[in-house]
Amino acid sequence: MAGRKTVFVDADILVVGGGMGGCGATYESRYWGRDLKIVCVEKANIERSGAVAQGLYAINCYMGMHWNENQPEDHVRYARNDLMGLVREDLGYDIARHVDSTVHKFEEWGLPIMRDPATGRYQREGKWQIMIHGESYKPIVAEAARKAATKVYNRIMVTHLLTDKARPNRVAGAVGFNVRTGDFYVFRAKAVIVAAGGASHIFKPRAVGEGMGRTWYAPWSSASAYALPILVGAKMTQMENRIVLTRFKDGYGPVGAYFLHLKTYTENAYGQNYEAFWRDSIEALVGDYVNHHPVPTCLRNHALLEEVKAGRGPIRMVTKEAFQDPHKETVGWENFLGMTIGQAVVWASQNIDPKEINPELTTSEPYVMGSHATCSGAWASGPEDYAPAEYQWGYNRMMTVEGLFGAGDTIGGTAHKFSSGSFTEGRIAAKAAVKYVKDLANERPQISEAEYEGLKKIIYQPLETYEVGRNEIVAGTVSPSYILPIHGLQRLEKIMDEYVGGISAYYTTNEPLLRRGIELLGMLKEDLAHLAAENLHQLQRAWELQHRVLASESVAQHTLFRTETRWPGYYYRADYPKLDDKDWHCFTLSRYDRVSGKWEMEKAPVYHIID
Amino acid sequence: MPTFVYMTSCDGCGYCVDVCPSDIMHIDTTYRRAYNIEPNMCWECYSCVKACPQHAIDCRGYADFAPLGHSVRVRREEEKATISWRIRFRDGREKNFVSPIRTTPWGSIKAPSEYPEPTAAAMNSQELAHEPEALKIGALPALKRDQLKQGLV
Q: Is the pTM of this model over 0.90?
């Protein structure tokens, strides 16, 4: 697009996304790479970006090794059990063995971590969780990252990665645009660490009016974590493994502190404990997994869903007893104010005081991400000191594209890393990236002018489409020539909801539905060439939508490939209703060919700590 | 909830525009004050509310499920390192909470480059920055190579 300024930025290490993973990567890059140029680029402002923007009330991944509370092996077994047997245990162990040093640094930096007055140790919420006053968690972590970076570029949306002119499987940088100035940015880098966000708003949310922004995962988590690597041919894993959350109704307020610390519990509309009632039928679907402790998250969702389908909803959290204790009441409220303020608003608006009323729970729409109780993401090389040969092709956390690293939501197979684990994974990826850059010495990948100039045209096209198309109509949003980002988003959410296992289908799909869904996603992809953006803000929405659509296609392809129901309560393949360890005790891998638009699927083995 | 801005309090400073993670707080070109351009992409994260020096931003719960008459007000005071909340129910009941937000002075974090430069041996080990000291255990744990096997558990 003529007239748009192009700004070139050279970096040794480029960190894409300044959330928890990206801040960890930026910090660690500087520690090991004192003389390197380290650039962090973020579409918002790292002060309050990513999933931790509004704060957290707990750190959900902390071993407490020096108090002999847990060992990394224990965390691996916990995550494996919760994900019905399938996690990258090499990667999970790696995060668990390092995460305590991350949390200890957070405390040194000024994060208020609660202490148990009796033991002097961190206050445990549950076996893995510690309680924090985390309103300023992100500003504190951002301060550390700003001090480490050569430069942080805020308000630049990265749309594509660049590859080397001569070697297409070698990353060479990234391009994007400044959401404020409209300038085009070309980043040239020796190594790139993608630490962008997972995917909210790919399935239709329960609230579709003004409240559609009150999704469980942040609405700005726009699947860049997946689209960026997918577009350059990186292999992805477990993209079918979407997550559904049982949360307080409408506000999606978290339940962890309520279950674990406040000892509240659930019951159906008639005051009955329903989980035990469904135990045997779950065993018929998944076998012995239902007998594991704690009961996997998806299976607890399943029991809730079956109970609601049986007509005994709403399901409620029994809070009245616990909230008589003023300390517990304070914890219950501060838990929301610290990380899901919207839930406090819902309760205030509906006069719900949990001291007097047991609040309703519901299951959310599905999300695709890699850091919570699910593990979608890129297939990455494991730690050098113990990863099996099939999991290792070079540097730790390097994807199947050379020089391309990842952390947080981006990396697949590593469930239950949460905020502290994502930061830790950023650190792991960064140390490996520094090593990679140092090993390269003076070799610098070459970007292709034709490639970035071509992308420049594509990136700004929606502004031009709007400019031209709007003159065709009198006023309003309906045009025969273009669709707006919100139109595309709502179409995507409807397709995914109805065909790929969203709320309106009770998370159920099958092969014919998936094939039809993929067909409709294909037409949506074609229509994205006619996206129109009225201004730079809408241009950001347009590219967020592009990323979401590509990630969604990957989810649909993976869901089609895995012919079993591995995680009932997350989703159901009605044509293969049972868990099938004989054929599917494996990871699903995909690779996207951006020229042909085809997906290649394969299986990869699962390695366990077996002792 | 989505946020909204009181006309008489906003002075158009743009702090909310600068911080909003969703890029939805913008300055209205006619009134030169901030407003929420896309309420349905608001996460109710309160980043803008907390950042507003004039306390001009408030929230009204999402129209599709929150009845009117409530408020959740906040004051984040960096110099006192506290955050104070006032929750007002539709029926007028109130609850107040105060929490600490930071235990060290703002800006006091030591940059990674201020630590002694790591040795080549450290670079080639599996240890990350500040390890093993920051782990507070003697050495970084590791699996043995043959501990990871295929099969069911």
A: yes
